[in-house]
Design brief:
The chain is built from 6 helices and 13 strands. The protein is an alpha+beta fold. It has 3 domains: 56 residues, no CATH class; 79 residues, Pseudouridine synthase (2-Layer Sandwich), CATH 3.30.2350; 87 residues, 2-Layer Sandwich (Pseudouridine synthase). The strands form 2 sheets. Strands 4, 5, 6, 7, 8, 9, 10, 11, 12 and 13 form a 10-stranded mixed β-sheet that branches.
Length: 260
């Protein structure tokens, strides 16, 4: 704290708040880690990195919602705006940091898979490193069933197999129509994915001519349109402790709203 106060024009309270939000890093013996304690003792040779961006620190995402606490892991609803990965400027807007600060009793929180910042829905948080490794292996082996819903532009056909490669890697999505609103020319679509490429669903649907409503990267979305209408609503896998099949469904009040 004293070192940062001496080398910046920021107040002590501002520095303390920035540290708590993950803006400070310590390099020691070629290892760099995020630090939050203002009273952290420094040793000769230590390097302190302070990344201050007031706009980042001022971000206030919508709170995440606990769906199920299974002790060794928990299932959450990630709202639009919460991240699955922090940056050097901070991590207070990440889902794992939210869980560490708000789940009782408090436990470490480890990310095992990701949702886009703009997407919403179910996400698994592990509370031990070995449990995180277990889930990571399930994802690698494609042993976790994931289902999504999206609202797309146009009248979607009964079913489509979407298998266009993404960044040179195979990608497979299976999509089927649930409902169509002729007044708005929008369709509600159910999607199951067998691979987990970056922005896979968004890219596949856009390439097929059915961009997701609110998609600012691959569709017609912009700052004036709605949020991205894509949500992860179903997860199923064998539990890490007893191999019992567990399934989680997003509550109705958190699912996409579609007017028929």
């Amino acid at each position: 704290m004293d070192a940062l106060e001496e080398t910046t024009e920021l107040t002590r309270q501002t520095i303390k708040q920035a540290m708590n939000k993950g803006a400070t890093w310590l390099t020691r013996n070629k290892s760099t880690q995020r630090i939050r304690r203002a009273d952290k003792s420094l040793k000769p040779g230590d390097e302190l990195h302070f990344y201050f961006d007031q706009n980042v620190l001022d971000e206030r995402p919508e709170p995440a919602t606990l769906i199920a606490d299974e002790e060794l892991y928990s299932i959450w609803h990630k709202p639009c705006g919460i991240l699955c990965q922090g940056s050097k400027w901070g991590d207070h807007c990440t889902i794992n940091r939210w869980v560490e600060k708000n789940l009782e009793p408090q436990r470490p929180a480890f990310i095992v898979h990701r949702l886009d910042r703009a997407a919403t829905g179910l996400i698994i948080i592990a509370h031990q490193k070995k449990i995180a490794a277990y889930f990571s292996n399930l994802f690698q082996q494609r042993e976790i069933e994931k289902k999504y819903q999206a609202i797309v532009e146009g009248e979607f056909p009964n079913a489509l197999k979407l298998d266009t490669d993404i960044e040179g890697k195979p990608a497979l999505s299976q999509a089927k129509a649930i409902a169509y609103n002729s007044a708005t020319n929008l369709s509600l679509v159910d999607i199951a994915i067998e691979t987990g490429r970056k922005h896979q669903i968004r890219r596949h649907l856009s390439a097929a001519g059915f961009p997701i409503v609110g998609d600012r990267l691959y569709g017609q979305g912009n700052e004036q349109t709605s949020d991205l209408c894509l949500t992860s609503y179903y997860l199923s896998f064998n539990a890490p402790t007893n191999d019992v099949k567990k399934s989680y469904l997003l509550p109705d009040n958190l699912q996409l709203k579609f007017l028929y």
